[in-house]
Each structure stands twice: as structure tokens, then as C-alpha cells.
Amino acid sequence: MSATSYQTLNKGELTQLLDIAREAIRGHFSSGLPKSPEYSLYGRKLLAPAACFVTLEVSGQLQGCLGSTAAHSPLVLEVHNKARASAYQDRRFMPLTEEQLSQLTIEISVLTTPKVQEIDSEQALIDFLSVNKVGVILTDNHQQALFLPQVWKKLKSPTNFIKQLKVKAGWNANYWSSNIKVKTFDVTSIKGKFY
């Protein structure tokens, strides 16, 4: 994977991103319009365009996860926007409530640039993933699904990982096509409690 500035975020920078996500979620419950991050407070790495996902869990259960795979905006703004979207716009879940905040954890994953893999069969992908525990994006025509590298903690088998990713895309678990495109990526991440 090509080295880019946002892959080298240190603990302090990641902690700043966690604070931005907390403020974005907190702002929903306070009066007035939510405030975007004040750019002057952050260093150049956090102001560089970067792609990220924000994952929310309440009592260990997924409550929202939205993000992007392409860098369009400064990272601080991406984290702010994706935190709000994950909390209140992920259609798979009811919007986050104030009562849930005490049990809320936030995980921010900053993505490397996805890299196209020349994979010609499902078995070749299984073989690749047996030694590379990375994030994966599968695309075929207009359907796409993504798993962050953290999903390996729950789906340890490459075969199961791929099957579940295909189901997420809306395909049959046994589906495979020569048209499927495979991209992989890594993340730098931080996880913390809301309070």
C-alpha cells in the first residue's frame, strides 16, 4: 500500500479525532446548529483529505457504521460528518438516543487508499486473505460491499469472511463472477467510550 500522511497518525491525533466524533454526536442533543470542527485547532495531517468510517456500538451491539472509501474532505470534517451520519442516518438502525450515550463506544477507522487486487477466482481471494487480514471491497456492476479489517475479529475464516461480505452486497453466499472487482485497504483506528 502506498504511504500517505494519514496512515501515520499518532495517538494524540487519533484522540483528537475521537473528540471530534464525540462533539458531533453531542451537538445533536444541544440547542442550536451543530458546529463543524474549527480548522485552526488541528495540524496538517488532520486537515489533509482522507477517507474514514465511524462505527458506533451500544452495549457491544452495532448501532451505526458509515463512511467513505475516497478522500474528498479534510479528515476532521469527514470524521465529524460520518459520526453524525452513523448516529442518526444509518438506515439499518433507529437514530441514537440520549439514553444510549452512557453505553456508547465510538471507533474511528482512517483508511489507506484502496488498492486493486488482480484476483481471478474466489479461491485466489481466499488464499490471499489467509495471509493478509485486510479490509476488503467487493464490487460487481452496481453492487458493492465493504468489510473493515476489524471484522476479522468476528469472522476469522477467509471463506466465511468472503461469504458474509457477498451476502452484505446482496448476493448469494456462493455467488462468484469473473466481473467481481476486489480492492483491499488497511486502517489506522482508535476506539473509545462516549463518556
From TrEMBL:
Pfam families hit by this protein: AMMECR1
Organism domain of life: Bacteria
InterPro entries in the record: AMMECR1 (IPR023473), AMMECR1_dom_sf (IPR036071), AMMECR1_domain (IPR002733), AMMECR1_N (IPR027485), AmmeMemoSam_A (IPR027623)
Gene3D superfamilies found in the cross-reference section: Hypothetical protein ph0010, domain 1, Hypothetical protein ph0010, domain 2
Start and end residues of each AMMECR1 domain: 12-195
Protein name: AmmeMemoRadiSam system protein A
Lineage: Bacteria, Pseudomonadati, Pseudomonadota, Gammaproteobacteria, Vibrionales
